# Entry
Amino acid sequence: MATEFIARGQDLELKGIRKEFPGFVAVDNLNLKIPAGEFFALLGPSGCGKTTTLRMIAGLESPSKGEILLGGKDIAGMKPHERPVNTVFQNYALFPHMSVLENVAFGIRQRKLTDPLSKAEKALAMVELEHLAQRRPQQLSGGQQQRVALARALVNRPSLLLLDEPLGALDLKLRRQMQIELKAIQMEVGLTFLHVTHDQEEAMDMADTVAVMNQGHIEQLGAPEVLYDRPKTAFVAKFLGQSNMFIGKVTETNSETTSIEYKGKKITGLTKRSEKVTGVIAIGVRPEKTYFHETQPDDDPGLNILGPGEITDIRFTGVSNQYQIDIPGIGVMTVFAQNVGRSPVVELGAQVYVSWKIEHSFGLSDLPSGVEEEH
Amino acid sequence: MTRFSLGKYLLPTYVFLTFLFLMIPIGYTFAFSFNDSIKSNIIWRGFTLDNWLNVCDQAGVCGAFGNSLLVAVIATAVSTVLGTMIAIALVRYRFKFRSATNLLLFLPLATPEVVMGAGLAAQFLDFGWTKGLTTVIIAHVMFTLSFVVVTVKARVATLDPALEEAGRDLYASPIQVFWKITFPLLLPGILSAAMLAFALSFDDFIITQFNSGSVDTFPKFVYTAAARGIPPEANVVGSFVFIVAIAIVIAVQVRSAMKKRKLLSK
# Structure
């Protein structure tokens, strides 16, 4: 059905991109390679330079330095209308004085290709909006407008499709639904998608590869599950979800394991899952990888055990419960327990122990700010 | 139980009186355009259509009207084009002296017309230009320009720059983006600016008086004629302009109402 649009996704490569605005540097020495046909997400908080990066690729900003290679060809000097790149804008930017069909046909007409209207109709059919072709954009719902914007970009069969927070204006339910549709369309047409977002769930849900951006540079790049499971920096660990962090001096390290001393307790991780094995390092663990026990578990070299501590807060989120456990001399830990009936039923104020497998620890290359240090 | 409410009666009465007060001079002008007058058009002497049918027989009326029309059309065209370009530049671009330009454009709105008219007259005298239609047109462009800029600027400010970026992204060159996206979206603002400029130029008296020399415009003609009794043909022209203006307003209202109905029915 979508064979019309299948094509010619191309590799995108950014080499040493830098963008200065008066008074600050938005993007600094950015290097990136996105293989053809991949769904790539640039993830970061607002002001991290991700939108500026996207606008440079679209041609709406020009880089102060560096190369933008699309299919091996440098497009950095080309005007936006000369680039084989199309964008789905944040607020869709549909032309209010044209019908939905004319909006979608706009790019085809501009390039003077044949049959603009029938091509536009096919693109609208792909997003299942052919029945609304004659409407004005402002008569459509947010989700429908979003799909028109997608059709308007895809109809041009760009080598690269840029998506600037495309789901940001939709409510949660619609956003989830559009995530699934967007991913399905991308797989169907096989184009290279570059998706910019600040929503880590959205990025992890859709993208093949995620690059986490912070202050104009890429902190870490990889498959979503790798980024989540093995963040390399404190920023990535925090941005992709919650974690329990422990900072301490390395007390022993070998080819298998590395341990630190944290407030008199030994906390161990695998050496191969640690970015740094000397000096003071941070070791973290995701809350859903931790368990609590009502009685003290037996010592086990494969487990980190802390406690006992008091449960100070329980939050019910549906699929799981989130517990805050205050362990004297250690601090507050967060534990997520799935509501599948396997965890012990505990109440506020109960005394529990917390454990996790040492292979679930991750060692960071830097230290998180705002966490108490122990030397 | 009904409670006497002052607002219930007072407000409609007040509104009625206000409208009456506003309409009396217009009604008077309109009625007296049909007066079978001899020398002065102050006393009602009977109904006739002669004034309407032979409006140009009265010396000077049609000539003055034609001059006013010519001045208004040219001044409106020039100030609308210039004003639209200035408005876009002021909203969209950051440049040196931008805020100074904003202030300068505001000045003619605040300056008394007498001062502006006299100032311009002195300038033309300095340059040694003969006063006539050209100087009137230049003067009118000058004072209507600010109104156009202010009106169009408001419209440009509501235009999402992302729409123009989307146009560029969809293979339209900057010129094509302007004509296919920016211009159609600004058009309502540009049209109302043009109408405002036309209305201001057409009935301007003070600035025109200073800069027109021997050329008569319609307001100037009426003013001069008032000294010895305004001919009923002047009432005809005045009524005619009023009717055209009202007709345009009604047409615009009907059109937008129909458009709204059409949108709702889909």
Observations:
- Residues 6-50 of chain B form one domain.
- The mean pLDDT of chain B is 90.
